[in-house]
Design brief:
Helix content: 40-55%
Number of strands: 4
CATH architecture of the largest domain: Orthogonal Bundle
CATH topology of the largest domain: MetI-like fold
Strand content: 5-15%
CATH superfamily of the largest domain: MetI-like
Distance between the termini: 60 Å
Number of domains: 2
Length: 385
């Protein structure tokens, strides 16, 4: 019986054809972590829209002096609680933006001061008009404003969002309030981020007694009721302090408890990462402890830190608004969303002047936008998920 012939060398060398990578797969294989994060974030429609809203808010904050058409501190008791004016865009069928002049009078029955539009007196609006001098970011001088009027003093003619009790223009004050409220949120989060990453990283990397001490400190901070603590610390601020000193103190108070949650997240990640091979390799080549923490460990989950930071900003904004609304945060002459809303505490004034609640709208929009962007970043932080 003849034995079967062995397979030829050609048959032995037959291998299944290798699958070629598509262009999309090749892009993903060589992409950095931040590229993957950006590609996935772009698919989150609500987060992208919210990001555009936040960019708009911060542009308003940067160019607030140019968007305001009068000095936000300029007051006139005769113009107190004036209602918002409506812009009329057409005149005799042609584009001609204007507002009607407003006249004040006393109601003969209630003796309450009322304001009546005078359709016969039309005040034309002018874009990019000259007004009070200012400095963008405290550096770039200018005196051109987005909106002004022709042939009349702007402080006596234009009240887009009405005025407050002291006759100060609410539109101009809202522009400056946006600047302060958004910046104080970023400053507080930056300080919380620094403390959270530093103490959380040290706690997770060194463990042992250091970890125990830091965790007990975190538990003590987290066990204290947040609002009473903030109110107590804010109420202890001397009334003689300047606006800048109170601004700095409120930032410190708001960030005092904001770092604990991030510190716990960082600690948990560090406990996992310190056993990885690349950390062992860094230790073997003689890298210092701080270099390992900030050069090797923190960048490995930086995307998660960014997402957590974005979600923390709205909490800081609400904290400042709440403290200022209660009269324990920023105080006049400082202007913030909370300071503007402080006048809305009076139910009687609010009943006859509902426009005093208008600063609530940017607070809600900013908080929602930050939350949606944070959700998008949190989902995008795991691009392989």
């Amino acid at each position: 019986m003849t034995e079967p012939e062995p397979l030829t060398s050609d048959a032995q060398m037959i291998e299944p054809p290798e699958e070629e990578m598509t262009e999309a797969e090749e892009r993903i294989s060589v992409a950095t972590a931040f590229q993957l994060m950006w590609w996935r974030f772009r698919k989150h429609t609500l987060a992208m829209i919210s990001a555009v809203v936040l960019i708009f808010f911060y542009l308003v904050a940067i160019f607030a002096p140019a968007l305001a058409y009068v000095d936000p501190e300029l007051s006139e008791a005769q113009r107190g609680l004036m209602p918002p004016q409506k812009i009329h865009w057409f005149l005799d069928g042609k584009l001609s933006p204007h507002v009607y002049a407003v006249k004040g009078a006393r109601d003969p029955q209630t003796f309450k001061r009322v304001y009546v539009n005078d359709p016969e007196t039309k005040i034309p609006l002018q874009f990019f008009a000259k007004g009070f001098p200012y400095r963008i970011l405290g550096v770039i001088p200018g005196d051109v404003h987005l909106l002004g009027v022709k042939g009349a003093p702007v402080e006596e003619s234009l009240f887009l969002l009405g005025t407050d009790v002291n006759g100060r223009d609410l539109w101009s004050r809202l522009m400056f309030a946006t600047q302060i409220s958004l910046v104080i949120g970023l400053a507080a989060v930056a300080l919380s981020l620094f403390l959270g990453v530093l103490l959380g990283g040290i706690s997770g990397y060194f463990s042992g007694a250091i970890d125990t001490v830091i965790q007990r400190v975190i538990e003590i901070f987290r066990s204290i009721p947040t609002i009473p603590l903030w109110m107590g610390l804010a109420a202890a601020l001397p009334r003689t302090w300047s606006t800048q000193q109170i601004y700095l103190a409120i930032t410190l108070i708001i960030s005092l408890l904001g770092w604990t949650e991030l510190a716990r997240v960082v600690r948990g990640r560090f406990l996992t990462l310190r056993e990885e091979d690349f950390i062992t390799a860094a230790e073997l080549v003689g890298c210092g402890k701080m270099r390992i923490i900030f050069r090797h460990m923190v960048p490995s989950f930086l995307s998660h830190i960014i997402a957590a930071t974005t979600l923390a900003i709205p909490a800081m904004i609400i904290s400042e608004t709440s403290l200022s609304f209660l009269g324990l945060g920023l105080r006049p002459p400082a202007i913030s969303w909370g300071v503007l809303l402080e006048q809305a505490q009076n139910i009687q004034a609010l009943a006859i002047s509902p426009w005093l609640l208008l600063p609530v709208i940017p607070v809600i929009l900013a908080v929602l936008a930050f939350n949606f962007v944070g959700d998008g970043l949190r989902d995008a932080a795991d691009p392989y998920g």
